[in-house]
Amino acid sequence: MQLNGPVRLFGNNINTDDIVPARYLNTSNPAELARHLMEDARPGFIDSLENGSIIVAGDNFGCGSSREHAPIAIRTAGVSCVIAEGFARIFFRNAINIGLPIIEIPAIASAVAEGERINVDLAEGSVRLASGKVLTFSPFPPFMQEIVRCGGWMQYLLSHREGGIL
Q1: Which residues pair with 100 in a beta bridge?
Q2: What range does the domain containing 58 cover?
Q3: What is the domain-level CATH number for residue 65?
Q4: Spatial contact of 73 and 36, defined as CB atoms under 8 Å apart
Q5: Cα–Cα distance for residue pair 52/113, rounded to 1 Å
Q6: d(CA 147, CA 114)
Q7: Is residue 166, in this structure, part of any structural domain at all?
Q8: Is 105 within the bounds of a domain?
Q9: Domains in the chain, number
Q10: What average pLDDT does the structure give for the chain?
Q11: Which of 11, 106, 117, 132 is buried most, with the most CB atoms less than 10 Å from its CB?
Q12: How far is CA 8 from the centre of its chain?
């Protein structure tokens, strides 16, 4: 799977309240959650977001809580993937479960610039920067790539059910 988009750059310790402020968690509607993506961390973020954008961040992205609202809002807003120097463990798993590709690459935040267009090859495990420099990462195992390709864990299960019964 190949992804291409402009970088939206963030720092370290972006928590789930930065991603979707808690005051909006009275809904589980993905479109409503997406409208408030990064609202407090970067006012006006959603209005300037290009479909296919790639969030790049420092360490500990998605820390704070185990809410699935955060990766759901990111995916629904049209972000194609998140690349960070490190992820909170529960955020990492929630992202895969809802089909949001996430990648860990050390020092990525200092290697790219806001708005720079990059190309991500999830199967190969590479990120090509605008300069032509290629950063590598360990690709997900094939079954995790399939979960992401299917759009999440539930869609994966439905597409792999035997005899039409889950």
Answers
A1: none
A2: 2-159
A3: 3.20.19.10
A4: yes
A5: 16
A6: 29
A7: no
A8: yes
A9: 1
A10: 93
A11: 117
A12: 11
Dist CA 83 CA 118 (whole Å): 11
Q: What is the 3-state secondary structure (H, E, C) of the chain?
A: CEEEEEEEECCCCCEHHHHCCHHHCCCCCHHHHHCCCCCCCCCCHHHHCCCCCEEEECCCECECCCCCHHHHHHHHCCCCEEEECCECHHHHHHHHHCCCCEEECCCHHHHCCCCCEEEEECCCCEEECCCCCEEECCCCCHHHHHHHHHCCHHHHHHHCCECCEC
- Of 95, 61, 59, 63, nearest to 80 (Cα)? 95
**What are the backbone angles phi and psi of residue 18, rounded to the nearest 5°?**
-70, -40
Task: Please check whether residue 164 lies inside any domain of the structure.
Answer: no
- Tens-place pLDDT, residues 59-118: 999 998 888 899 999 999 999 999 999 999 999 999 999 999 999 999 999 999 999 999
Instruction: Output the pLDDT for position 163.
Output: 57
Compute the average pLDDT of residues 48-54.
95
Q: Is the dihedral of CA 34, 7, 80, 138 positive or negative?
A: negative
